[in-house]
Amino acid sequence: MLPVTLARFLVEAERKNPAVSADLRFLVEVVSRACKAISIAIGKGSLADVLGGAGSDNIQGEAQKKLDVISNEILLDANEWGGHLAAMASEEMDGPHQIPRRYPKGEFLLVFDPLDGSSNIDVNISVGTIFSVLRCPEGAGDVGEQAFLQPGTQQVCAGFAVYGPSTLLVLTLGDGVKCFTLDREYGHFVLTQENMRIPDDTKEFAINMSNQRFWEPPVQRYVGELLAGKDGPRGQDFNMRWVASMVADVFRILTRGGVFMYPVDSRTKDKGGKLRLMYEANPMAMIVEQAGGRATTGRERILDIQPTKLHQRVPVILGSKNEVERVSAYHRG
Ligand code: AHG
Ligand code: MN
Ligand code: MN
Fold first, then answer.
1. pLDDT at position 1 over 90
2. Which residue among 82, 83, 85, 256 is the one 20 to 30 A from 216 at the CA level?
3. Ligand number with the minimum distance to the CA of 250
4. Where in the sequence of the chain do the CATH 3.40.190.80 domains occur?
């Protein structure tokens, strides 16, 4: 039998599921095409002079890499003309990006982190793209920031690409989590995992240990117990992994379980955390929950947060259900 391409998967999803409209199907296809283009640009590396800094800062004061800017442009160009979007927003832009007046507008809002893990670009480690799809509230004219400020439970679709040894697209339409692998010879994504499930238990954790002295007591306690291993209260050894690309860490957790933490700490308390709610935490939380895992700030479910700002930051603890619940219990205790 021929492999199931993303295009075929989406047509069949539209037939089966009334929540999947032709416009949503088109949107996912367009985003996947943009991810293919980003994958090609990343793959060329130094040959195409795409590595290194862009010489500019984004709204959050972070130095932009050339590939942050290129990936943002690719996603904007791909998504402007199709008539499926009302507006877009991204890590790399201060405010909403309007659909040019020469094109029709659609019902969806697309929010993205065009290149996640950009500190890894120049050292040839996996990076990715994260995206979230919301419905645009009714109303004519330009779409303001307010339209985007919807809790993660309102997402109609979320996904991410990983540009690693293979290029992958992980997708949820609110009905489980699928993984597609880019077939470079044929140029299309092929369904390679139909029902990704995160094991409830794990012996693996992911956190940037260099921030340990800034953590709050519940995280100190939890990680302290993991590090104590067999000799501590958990009575078993735990292994640690930290790629510093959330896409790669979350993909590993979707594959074999684990817990990923970027908690709030004394350095990031004023900002609310490090990772961004709208285009990192929310889409990843939807995917993780759809795969049977949990995603919390430690104090509340990420998907329930009512956003107040487009670039709002939040603490993120996600992955295997029983470990995430334990971290939450330590926060309550
Ligand atoms: P981005 O490259 O989009 O700014 O995101 C990077 C994020 C995330 O992918 C990763 O888990 C984390 O930042 C790494 O942070 P540290 O460098 O502090 O470990
Ligand atoms: Mn990111
Ligand atoms: Mn980014």
1. no
2. 256
3. 1
4. 204-332
